[in-house]
Automatic annotation (TrEMBL):
Residues 7-185 form the Ketoreductase domain. Belongs to the short-chain dehydrogenases/reductases (SDR) family. GO terms for molecular function: oxidoreductase activity. Keywords: NADP, Oxidoreductase. One of its GO terms (biological process) is monocarboxylic acid metabolic process. This is 3-oxoacyl-ACP reductase.
Length: 253
C-alpha cells in the first residue's frame, strides 16, 4: 500500500461511549472508519461527527456474536471503504448479578458478545490484514478481568480476551499484525450509568464515589481510552504486541 492510501478501521460498538470516541479519534488520525453497532441508525451520530470534521466513515448494522452478520458486515466494509487492516473489538454488554442469581442466559449473552464477537470479527478481518502484510487488533478488556463482585460472566469474558489477545499476537505477528488489549477502569458511559441505576445511586454521586478510589482522583472519559487505542493502532507501534494496558487512573495488575 502507498503511504497516501487511507487505512480502513473497523470499530465495533461504535454508536456511543468508548467505541464512538475511538471511531472519531481514529478518523482524526486519518483512518477511514466503519462504525459497527447492533442498529445501523444508531451509528449515525458517530459517522456525522467524523464526516463533519472532514473524515471518512460508514455506519454498519451487525450483531458481532452472529457469524453471518459479521461476515456480511465485513464484506460491506471491503466494498464501501476497502480492505480493513485495523480492528477494535469494543462492542460489549453487562448482565451483572451475583453468581447464585446469574442465569445461564446472562452468562451466554456476555460471553457471546465479548468473546465470540471478538473471535468472529478477528477471523473475518485477519485475512485482509495478512494480505496487506500489516494489521492492528485491539481488544477491550477491563479492570474487571482481575475479578469483580457481581460480574462472574463479564470478568471471565474480559480475562478471556487477554488470553485471546496474546494468542493472536503469537499467531499473527509474522504477518505484520499486532494484537493488544486495553483494559479500562471506570469510564463515564451509558454502561456505567446503568450500573449506577442498578445500585440505586445517581450517576454524579456514583462517579464522585468512584473517583475517590482512583489515584488521579477522577473517573475516565471515553477519550482516555481512545487515546490508548490510537497508540496501539498507530504506524509506530509495530513492535508492541500481546500487551494488556490498564487505563484506570492508577496501577492495577
Ligand atoms: N465504561 C467502562 O467503565 C468500561 C470499563 C472497562 C471496559 N469497558 C468495555 O469497553 C467497551 C465499551 O464500553 P462502553 O462503556 O462504551 O459501553 P456502552 O454500553 O456505552 O457501549 C457499548 C456499545 O456496544 C454495542 N453492542 C452491544 N452488543 C453488541 C453486539 N452484539 N453487536 C454489536 N454491537 C453491540 C451497544 O449497542 C453499544 O453501542 C465494552 O467492551 C466494555 O465492556 C468499559
Amino acid at each position: 500500500m502507498s503511504t497516501t492510501e487511507q487505512r480502513v478501521a473497523v470499530v465495533t460498538g461504535g454508536a456511543r461511549g468508548i467505541g464512538a470516541a475511538t471511531a472519531v479519534r481514529l478518523a482524526a488520525e486519518g483512518r477511514a472508519v466503519a462504525v459497527i453497532d447492533l442498529d445501523e441508525a444508531a451509528c449515525k451520530d458517530t459517522v456525522e461527527k467524523i464526516t463533519a470534521a472532514g473524515g471518512k466513515a460508514i455506519a454498519v448494522g451487525a450483531d458481532v456474536s452472529d457469524e453471518a452478520q459479521v461476515e456480511a458486515a465485513i464484506a460491506r466494509v471491503v466494498e464501501e471503504l476497502g480492505a480493513p487492516t485495523i480492528l477494535v473489538n469494543n462492542a460489549g454488554v453487562l448482565r451483572d448479578n451475583l453468581l447464585f442469581k446469574m442465569t445461564a442466559a446472562d452468562w451466554d449473552t456476555v460471553l457471546n458478545v465479548h468473546l465470540r464477537g471478538s473471535f468472529l470479527m478477528a477471523k473475518a478481518v485477519q485475512k485482509h490484514m495478512v494480505e496487506a502484510g500489516w494489521g492492528r487488533i485491539v481488544n477491550l478488556s477491563s479492570s474487571s478481568a482481575l475479578g469483580n463482585r457481581g460480574q462472574a460472566n463479564y470478568s471471565a469474558a474480559k480475562a478471556g480476551l487477554q488470553g485471546f489477545t496474546k494468542t493472536l499476537a503469537i499467531e499473527l505477528g509474522k504477518f505484520g499484525i499486532t494484537a493488544n488489549a486495553v483494559a479500562p477502569g471506570f469510564i463515564a458511559t451509558e454502561m456505567t450509568k446503568v450500573t449506577a441505576e442498578r445500585v440505586k445511586m445517581g450517576f454524579e454521586e456514583f462517579k464522585a464515589a468512584a473517583a475517590t478510589q482512583i489515584p488521579v482522583q477522577r473517573v475516565g472519559e471515553p477519550e482516555d481510552i481512545a487515546n490508548a487505542i490510537a497508540f496501539f493502532t498507530g504506524e509506530a507501534a509495530g513492535f508492541v504486541s500481546g500487551q494488556v494496558l490498564y487505563v484506570a487512573g492508577g496501577p492495577l495488575d
